[in-house]
Amino acid sequence: MTSKPQIDELLRIKQLASYSAKEASTHTYKSGINKGKTKNINARPASRGLIAVSDKTIWQWVKNGDFPPPIKLSPNVSVWRSSDIEAWMKSKGMEA
């Protein structure tokens, strides 16, 4: 009897990175075709991802080759295999 290969869970950046809370605010455009118009920015609750760094830090690590490269599902969607992230965390002495 053959066993089925185990399928890796795919993780998005929001599951990996940590985000601080952000209050709702209003932005007023200072130049361009929208000058003088305002835009409401929604509040964001704090979120604790698997890795206690921001998404910008993760993307910088990817660029520098210090973090596993993502899998591009589309031009705007990148994911990581959970097994790749667990192996990276083990290599850094972090708990998964």
Summary of the model, kept short:
The protein is 25% helix and 20% strand. The protein has three helices and five strands; from the N terminus they run E-H-E-E-H-E-E-H.
List keywords for this structure.
20% strand; 3 helices; two-stranded antiparallel ribbon; elongated; alpha+beta; 96 residues
Could you walk me through the main structural features you see in this protein, from its secondary elements to its overall organization?
The structure is a single chain. By secondary structure, this protein is α+β, with helices and mostly antiparallel strands. It has one domain (10-91). 25% of the residues lie in helices and 20% in strands. The protein has 3 helices and 5 strands, in the order βαββαββα. It has a 3-stranded antiparallel β-sheet with strand order 1-5-4. Strands 2-3 form a two-stranded antiparallel ribbon. The radius of gyration is 18 Å and the shape is elongated. The chain starts with 9 loop residues before the first strand and ends in a 5-residue tail after the last helix. The mean pLDDT is 90.
Secondary-structure map with pairings?
Elements: E1 10-11, H1 13-16, E2 25-28, E3 38-41, H2 55-64, E4 71-74, E5 77-81, H3 82-91
Antiparallel strand pairs: 1-5, 2-3, 4-5
Give the termini distance in whole angstroms.
32 Å
Query: SSE order, as H and E?
Result: EHEEHEEH
Structurally, how many domains make up the residues? 1
Report the strand count.
Answer: 5
Number of helices: 3
The order of strands across the largest sheet is 1-5-4
- Looking at the structure, what is the overall shape? elongated
Catalogue the unreliable spans: none
